[in-house]
Amino acid sequence: MALDRQTVVRTALRVLDEVGLEGLTLRRIAAELDVRAPALYWHFKNKQELLDAMATTLLVDALDRFGVPDTGDWVELAEAYGRGLRAMLLSHRDGARMFSGTFLTDDTAYGSMERAIRTLTGAGFSARDAVRGLNTIYCFTIGFTIEEQAVHPRPGQRAEQYDLAARTERVDPALPHVRDTGAEVLDNFDDRFEHGLQVIISGLGSTLGRADP
Q1: Of 19, 82, 166, 183, which residue is most buried, by most CB within 10 angstroms?
Q2: Confidence of residue 8 (pLDDT cuts 50, 70, 90)
Q3: CB neighbours (10 Å) of residue 95?
Q4: Residue by residue, what is the 3-state secondary structure of the chain?
Q5: Which residues 6+ apart lie within 8 Å of 10 measured at CB?
Q6: For 118-151, what is each residue's pLDDT tens digit?
């Protein structure tokens, strides 16, 4: 098997699903490829450079699957953007943590960004508010999904320390609002994500037609 950058990246994503971000090492990836770890340094200087490439590959794959809706409806675009981004992050174990703070190296993603901004400005948003709105959805989705994957490292799996019944038992009965709303912290992730996304979209809508200062 030829050892090229994309082979290393795809293998690293498979290893990520097996061992999580903490267990992802160049040595572990090299073992999966049946090579010595130094062989990977021909392609990546360090783990962070590999993470950048993994995040970029994840994004490019997601753009192929979800893309940017071309209906001209800014609400539909904003919803699809948030939902598609979350689906992308959830597609791999620790996907949100892996993606967060990385440097994206494929400039083709700018084409989708341009279309999204064009849709929003075409609806009456200023370019500044369009970009800030999209960035707010981006930051919310990444942060939300980091917390979601802390509770559910894998689909159907709950981390032991986030047991809902144990949390309820631990909270002082004198704090009924905290005690009775544990599911709004540790469960109902789909509903909670949609609620947060709609709050952002509603707030963004309030800036419609406002000119840049």
Answers
A1: 82
A2: very high
A3: 25
A4: CCCCHHHHHHHHHHHHHHHHHHHCCHHHHHHHHCCCHHHHHHCCCCHHHHHHHHHHHHHHHHHHHCCCCCCCCHHHHHHHHHHHHHHHHHCCCCHHHHHCCCCCCCCCHHHHHHHHHHHHHHCCCCHHHHHHHHHHHHHHHHHHHHHHHHHCCCCCCCCHHHCHHHHHHHCCCCCHHHHCCCHHHHCCHHHHHHHHHHHHHHHHHCCCCCCCC
A5: 57
A6: 999 999 999 999 999 999 999 999 999 999 999 9
pLDDT 10s digits, 31-66:
999 999 889 999 999 999 999 999 999 998 888 777
